[in-house]
Amino acid sequence: MGFWTRRNWMTLAAIGGFVSVAAGAFAAHGVHDPKAQEWLRTGSTYGFLHTLATFACATFMTIGARRARLAPAFFLSGTVLFSGSLYAMALGAPRWFGAITPIGGLLFLIGWGMLAWAARGIDPPA
């Protein structure tokens, strides 16, 4: 399993939650440009939701969906690319960083697909 142990991805998810809350607070209190605020809020929302999804994977695994261990890599990588590119643009990075955002979105979709596939392993028909 290498780096993607439950301990490591849960730690990374907790850090992601921290960053998401900080970015949301910064959008509300530290930025006056409406576009930058929007990018920070969007990145924060998606980052936080996928942090929670990563934690949900641990629950899935405890009830028999072993394949759920595959989804956090996509959720966390997606957060780095999707939310990270929005945060970067809000802080002044060139607009071409926006081309990275959909790659993160695709990783989110793959993660959700993996989680759906994992759910099929719960309570299989007898």
Distance between the termini: 30 Å
Total number of domains: 1
Described by strand count, sense and barrel closure, the largest sheet is:
none
The low-confidence parts are none
- Round the mean pLDDT to the nearest integer and report it: 92
Helical segment count = 4
- H/E order of the elements? HHHH
Please bin the fraction of helical residues.
Answer: over 70%
Strand content: under 5%
Could you tell me the radius of gyration in angstroms? 16 Å
The assembly state of the depicted protein chains is single chain
> Structural class, from helix and strand content?
mainly alpha
Count of DSSP strands: 0
Overall, the morphology is: elongated
Describe the SSE topology.
Blueprint: H1 6-29, H2 34-62, H3 71-90, H4 101-119
Helix pairs in contact: 1-2, 1-3, 2-3, 3-4
List keywords for this structure.
126 residues; mainly alpha; 4 helices; elongated
Describe the structure.
The protein is mostly helical and 126 residues long. It has four helices and no strands. It has one domain (6-119). It starts with 5 loop residues before the first helix and ends in a 7-residue tail after the last helix. It has helices spanning 6-29, 34-62, 71-90, 101-119.
Concise overview:
The protein has about 130 residues and is mainly alpha-helical.
